[in-house]
Task: inverse folding
């Protein structure tokens, strides 16, 4: 199996809104399979298509129950609040505590083209929100408060993320 190169912060593709998927066909399934491979290679728990340069509204994830894909996802409902130390495969080596809703109900289409509704609590909900942000060109940095964001951007300016170590951060999942 092959894998894609993961685009890192600074790549303009990460700032663009991805387009709806119109056909769930063989070509799309191959892209999804390669995304899953890429996500596992990088020890990620979630990967959005724009992170590998594919401008389509879909993401893969695996929080321990096997690889899944969600196509044309939309949030139905969110509940509660949860602070969590988030990492991102496109900002390797960096992590930030971000408050987001805790319980997330999301809808979308699966790999067989069937409409699904999924409820994600804690980590799974976090993955849904983080990946959905990627589809809208939003990075976790954009979820920081203005001062934190400024500090983070300053720090990132001097780092070559393409050369940054992708070694697993022990307690941080990369999304
Ligand atoms: Ni990410």
Result:
């Amino acid at each position: 199996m092959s894998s894609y190169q993961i685009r890192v912060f600074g790549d303009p593709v990460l700032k663009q809104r991805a387009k709806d998927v119109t056909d769930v066909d063989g070509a799309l399934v191959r892209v999804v399979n390669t995304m899953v491979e890429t996500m596992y290679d990088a020890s990620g728990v979630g990967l959005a298509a724009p992170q590998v340069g594919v401008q389509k509204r879909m993401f893969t994830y695996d929080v321990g129950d096997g690889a899944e894909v969600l196509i044309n996802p939309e949030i139905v409902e969110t509940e509660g609040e949860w602070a969590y130390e988030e990492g991102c495969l496109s900002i390797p080596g960096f992590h930030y505590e971000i408050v987001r809703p805790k319980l997330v109900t999301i809808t979308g289409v699966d790999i067989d083209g069937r409409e699904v509704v999924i409820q994600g609590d804690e980590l799974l909900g976090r993955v849904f929100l983080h990946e959905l942000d990627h589809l809208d060109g939003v990075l976790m940095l954009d979820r920081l408060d203005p001062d934190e964001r400024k500090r983070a951007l300053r720090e990132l300016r001097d780092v070559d993320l393409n050369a940054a170590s992708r070694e697993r951060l022990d307690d941080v999942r990369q999304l």
